[in-house]
Design brief:
three-stranded antiparallel β-sheet, six-stranded antiparallel β-sheet, globular, 270 residues
Amino acid sequence: MGSNTNFDPTGEKKARKKATFAGAVIAGIFSISLGVLLGFCVLAAAAPMEYQPKADTKTGKIAPPPAGLFYWAGAPGGDYDAKETQYLAGQPGSLTVADSELNSWSMSVFKFDAPKPKAPAAPAAPPASTSEAAKVKEQAQEAEADLKNFGMEPGSPNFHIFHDPLAPADVPFSFQVAVPLTVTLLGVDIPMVYQARGVFEPGPQGPQFKPYYSCFGSARIPTGPGLAKLLFDTIASKFAASDPAKKYADAWVKLSSATVQDGGLVLTNK
């Protein structure tokens, strides 16, 4: 009587098949997730239309920005030194800072080093096992490592104050923060711009920026406590961890309000 090679009284072979199948599913999920994320970043990197304000030849008035997706960068200019000293001193009173002064300050203070080129990866060691389960596990580990290598390096923020046609009816002037980013995924560097427009509300650590609109490249991000807040907090943390941030954060906590007006951002000290 011949032996039955499919006989598996302990269920070991069945368990191995299940583990292999589970590993293949995990590797597939990682691969799909990476592909979707990379595809999203590439598509989102298409820059939104950059608005160039032009005056009407008859009336001389500046045409308003479009109601769709656009990016209107603020220009630098002005001497911010005296206002910076007044802000850091924390004396009672109000201080109005134009967006052009904020941009000059930002370009001077937030200077991030360019991302360092990554060293070439060492040649992979030959696999210890050639079993199907080992191969699947290795693929899943490689996909997970690629996902962990996702990076986001910011440049100097750009600020702009203007009347936004997308703003709520009770917001006459909006404060826009735009951050140029280099997103790295799977060894690909993707340049894009993050935008957030909103107003300031009272908060436990000084005025809190509350965006009603945010955009990652050309992808509109739904507002709310989910993805929009996560993305804003992630980018803001890059600046909070920078060397010059602490002294400005300490002065910000002392503010009682930050109001967006036509002439600039009005900071009022307690």
